[in-house]
Amino acid sequence: MLSASRAGLAQERGLEEPPAPRLERPKAIDHGDVACNIALQLSKAWKLNPRELAQALVGRLQQQAGFNELIASCEIAGPGFINFRLSNAAKTAVVPEILAEGAHFGETIRSKQSPQSAMIEFVSANPTGPLHVGHGRQAVLGDALANLLATQGIQVHREFYYNDAGIQITNLALSVQARLQGLKPGDTTWPEQAYNGEYIAEIAAAFRASPEFKNELEAIRQFAVAYLRNEQDIDLKTFGVQFDCYYLESSLYTDGRVAQIVDDLQSIGKTYESEGALWLKTTDDGDDKDRVMRKSDGTFTYFVPDVAYHTSKWNRGFQKVINVQGSDHHGTIARVRSGLQGVAQKRGWDIPKTYPDYVLHKMVTVMRHGEEVKISKRAGSYVTVRDLVEWSGGVTPEMTPDERDLALQRGRDAVRFFLISRKADTEFVFDIDLALQQNDENPVFYVQYAHARISSILQQWGGQLSDLTSADLSLLQSKASDHLLRRLAEYPEMLTAAADELAPHALAFYLRDLAGDFHAFYNADRVLVDDQNLKLARLALLSATRQVLQNGLRVLGVSAPTKM
Fold first, then answer.
1. Sheet of 117-121: strands edge to edge?
2. What three-state secondary structure class fits 284?
3. What phi and psi, each to the nearest 5 degrees, are found at residue 101?
4. What is the dihedral of CA 53, 56, 57, 60, to 10 degrees?
5. pLDDT digit string, tens, across residues 413-464
6. CA distance 385 to 526
7. By C-alpha distance, which of 299, 301, 311, 306 is closest to 346?
8. What does the alpha-carbon distance between residue 67 and residue 40 come to, in Å, rounded to a whole number?
9. Strand 357-361 with 371-373, pairing
């Protein structure tokens, strides 16, 4: 409607083709439901006063068919903003839309120009110990981001890159071997670089009891890596995270991919020898200095297999790749991208200079009883994901299996919601005591309780949900219902913006706001009133709200309980 008005005005006055108007939702409700600055955009090019131009556009709008059904009023504000207030019919239209689309409300099908598939690589922990809370933050970020992209019609491939090669794996094998020899941390002959957690003793005991037992370092290495991979898989399953593929770093060497990319880079003059080492000319691609690829002892630096790994991603057809990693990986971005540009030059690939994308997260500080928790006995030097889930769910040894399952669900929900509720590049303090609270101060409880309360109201009503599709929504005219309707209508565009910006925390913010709007509505407008028509209208609004809460929590990987 607005596009037709500005196009008609341009044609009438012989002006150049105007850009498409962009509509925004003002943060302050007093500024209306929708705002547009098209008059400010066009005023300079069209050499017209922006307020006069805005008035001309509004005049044309008011002449169009259907204007009064859609717009209750519009006003010109400031230097030329046009603020629209939607009609009640336009505002309430979101309710039948939500009820009709159900679990699919908010989903979008992208244009053919947008990426149709994407790979997200996340967690990618060394199989040298249990997953720590940093891995937990990464797991939640990656999983929620994958779910978020899926709502935009993008087919998402989840991948875990196992760093099962290198000095850390050697140290793991030596640690288990030392335990097999009866040594323990603190002994004078305990290896200096060994891992000290109790899990090393567990691996040694399991290996000694296994049919594969032999006191050979390679056999120990294979068993220890397999043992810890299984442990990590159990933790990820408990955490509600699944992967489509587990890619082994060791395969890059056995398949010859590392050697091949080194040959590729040497063949195009992208490298040089100095001080007995092989260097990559990363300064050609904006790095602050060139980087060593192969050290003087013949071993490769850690970013070289990363380049080989990303050539595999491109070769497998993944033109959109997002890596979710800790902020300590920031220095590798320029090196990996520089190496990829060299390989692309050699092989004739059109790899964008910004490939792959990165979401870098900062670490997590865990607080319990007002004090920072830095270690757990099993890990020896850090808090594990398993610790965090069990502590946040209140798991105790006395629990029955069913009680333990419920507690783990509570813990998983709390950990996932908490870890996604801040921007990835900000520090996060995880408060165990807050996660255990069953009140409005606990954000995940606040959102889940909104869903459970609506479920309770609908159950108390006892009618058929299908009856709500014919409710007279024109009766929703209170300020509280207006705020709730406005929030519901924001959900699809919020999802799209969060996906575009790789910002799943925006969804956590939204769900808290939606829960707040619901609680405000519940306190202001009684739902189960005697007036049958008004009751059905308010129940329809609550049913739509419950659906959006469900949809959003599902994207975050958090449950939507019907009782609390």
1. 245-248, 155-162, 117-121, 321-326, 357-361
2. helix
3. -85, -20
4. -170
5. 999 999 999 999 999 999 999 999 999 999 999 999 999 999 999 999 999 9
6. 43
7. 311
8. 22
9. unpaired
